[in-house]
Amino acid sequence: MLTLRGITKRFGDNLAVNDVTLELRGGEILALVGENGAGKTTLMRIAAGELTPDAGTIERAGEVGFVHQHFLLVSDFTIAENLALQRAWSFASLRTLEAEAEAIIAATGIELHGPSRRVEELSVGEKSKLELIKAIAKKPRVLILDEPTSVLTPTESAELFAVMRRVASEGTAVVFISHKLPEVLEIADRIVVMRRGRVVLETKSMTAEELAGAMVDMPVVLSYSPHPNIEAIVGVAGNGQSQFAERFRDEHPEASLIPEDRSRDGIIAEMSIAENLALRTKDDPAKLIRIYSIKATGPNQKVGSLSGGNQQKVLLARELWGRRSLILAAEPTRGLDIEATAFVHEQLREAGDEGCEILLITSDLDEAFTLASSIRVMYRGELSEPMTPEVARERVGALMAGLR
Amino acid sequence: MRQIGAAIASLVLLSLSALVFGRSPIELLGILINGSVGSRFAIDGTLLKSVPLLLTGLSVAVAFRAGVWNIGGEGQFIVGAIAAIITSRFGLAAALLASMLAGALWASIATAMRLWRNAPEVLTTILLNFTAIHLLGWCVNGPLQERGAQYPQTDIAAAALPQLGEVHAGLLLAIAASIAAWFLLYRTAEGLRLRATGFNARAAKWAGIDVDRQLVRAMAMSGALAGLAGGIELLGVTHRLFERFAVGYGYSGIAVALLAQLHPLATIASSIFFGALSTGAGELQRTANISSNVAIFGQAVVILVLILFGSWRARD
Asked: How many H helices and E strands in chain B?
């Protein structure tokens, strides 16, 4: 149905997909699993022709339908109008469009009533049904669903699975991208595990624990020295970490806060280093630039023109200098090189040595195990019990994938 | 540099527009320059026009710096003048203070609606302009109408700004206001928080800034400056209120502030440029019979050139 050979794709320095070969077969439900950033979506966007690979070949027979994780619907339009966007051009009354919509919906076997309702009135579950209808209506030979259940209730997920099975039984190759292992085990005929851009496992039957072990890239650093004052919250991004951090901020205004999205929530790019520092500390900016070894022309350089690592150092200087009792550090090393990462870790350890309590939110397990003496997992907004690194080592993968 | 380029480009385009009227561009440019800075009389006229423009320009600069889109300078200008005429019997200082207070309160209606129901201030401030215009109309036809009730206008204000030659002392007040605004924005912690909020409200919040409080303060300050502009125009130039009292100074303040890249000190130069444009356009109407609307055309050209070259955004 569709064959990918030797596919490689880079985004800047990041090797998103690394020499992947994969065949999609008609009539089969293939689950593509892996952590965030493992390359699942990128690989499938290449399969669908949305991205061009840097290397490799694609053999495609027929239409590829892609249901994206984020809705691509016109929210001011009705269901019928959204479906009509795929229709060939002709004059048609609204009533005709609604009749056509009803026929299209009936043909897919998905239940969605009231084609004259506007999309913004629909529930999230209904919107995802509409996306699915749009994709199936084109009668694709390959149907790709990117994390379709992340917004669905269990009943809605069950409905979705029934539709997937029927579509597959009609000869379509169905790809189910997910990191929820119970669902994967329930629905998939074949499972492909990706990690850091590579396919690391391809299997037809496996236990959830084995799968979790393959999916999560458990770090094998030999010498950890977890810090007693650092607690880590790990989890796949999008499981409520951002909301947790914002709640923490509002409840602890006195804390030192390193937000996860540096450029959006952390620094003020248009202002100088001195001005950014002055928002939280009265100390001499030139001195802080020296202490935090920020590479800059001087205190008046705009923070937006610094490298990511140096922006993060400005943020650390602003938040950590002088007053540390409680620190929230969310993804503090995201996008940083090895040297800058080491600097951030060192700063956090130092703060811990001074008796500061540190809460580290990270999706980088390496980071969690390197720094934290206590680890919790966040899944769908809920925190697990704290675990020692030894216990966490055994259980983190399963907990992150939603297994209890 | 771009700012000067935009100013020059607008003058060139203005001159070329003479071709539409069948005149020579050089002649038009000559009249424009001569009529705005060519004589002592012309310079005085330019300075008089610059004073309200400087204050409404500052009003816009302070608000935009804080990320608040106050388009309501015109309405705040009007209520400032109304407050000034009512309180002028208590003396000059009282009238000026009242004008600032009135402008601040008028602008704060928009803030309240933003905080209460998240109503965008771009819309509410502009709608409050129309409300203010009608309030003025009612005042000069009703409670504030002159004794004898002959024309829709008020009596002469009981206080007036002292004259410095042909120019009133409001010029000094306006310059003092721009220095004060600069000091506040660039030399105080409050100004730092205000600008941080304007650049990136999310990051400001993470840095512990009360973003709503910044909004309230910026809007009040911005309204006070526009109200003061109205008070000074009344106490220094017109001395009484009438229906057509506001002639667009509130809106022109946006052009003034954008040309100055929202910098309080640059606003002085920018207001003089637009003041000169307006005075020169008056001369065009008198001697060449070309509509003084070319001044508005000039403002539009400046803004368009600035937007085209992407330099209207706040920069330090």
From this structure: 13, 2
- Specify the domain boundaries for CATH 3.40.50.300 within chain A: 2-215, 227-400
> Tokens 């003058």 belong to which residue?
B11
Chain B residues inside the 8 Å CB shell of A257? 206, 208
Chain A interface residues (partner B, CB cutoff 8 A): 249, 253, 257, 259, 264-272, 275, 278-280, 318
Query: Cα(A140)–Cα(B210) distance, rounded to whole angstroms?
Result: 52
Q: How far apart are CA B284 and CA B294, in angstroms?
A: 9
Partner-chain contact B196 A279, CB within 8 Å: yes
Domains and CATH numbers, chain B: 2-308 (1.10.3470)
pLDDT band with cut points at 50, 70 and 90 for residue B166:
confident
- CB distance A271–B195 less than 8 Å? yes
Per run of 10 residues, the mean pLDDT along chain A (length 404 residues) is 92 85 94 84 93 93 88 92 90 92 92 91 87 92 90 81 93 90 89 90 82 70 76 86 93 92 91 95 93 91 88 93 87 81 90 93 88 93 91 86 76
CB of B314 within 8 Å of any CB in chain A? yes
CATH 3.40.50.300 assigned to domain A227-400? The reply is yes
Cβ contact B281:B25 at 8 Å: no
A2-215, superfamily in CATH?
Answer: P-loop containing nucleotide triphosphate hydrolases (3.40.50.300)
Q: What stretches of A87-238 adopt beta strand conformation (E)?
A: 142-146, 173-178, 190-195, 198-203, 227-234
ipTM: 0.86
Report the C-alpha dihedral over residues A257, A261, A265, A268, rounded to 10 degrees: 110
Q: Please check whether residue B193 touches A, CB under 8 A.
A: yes
Report helix, strand or coil for B216. Answer: helix
- Cβ of residue B186 closer than 8 Å to a chain A Cβ: no
The A198-203 sheet, strands edge to edge:
A64-67, A142-146, A173-178, A29-33, A190-195, A198-203
Question: CA B44, CA B37: separation in Å to the nearest integer?
Answer: 9
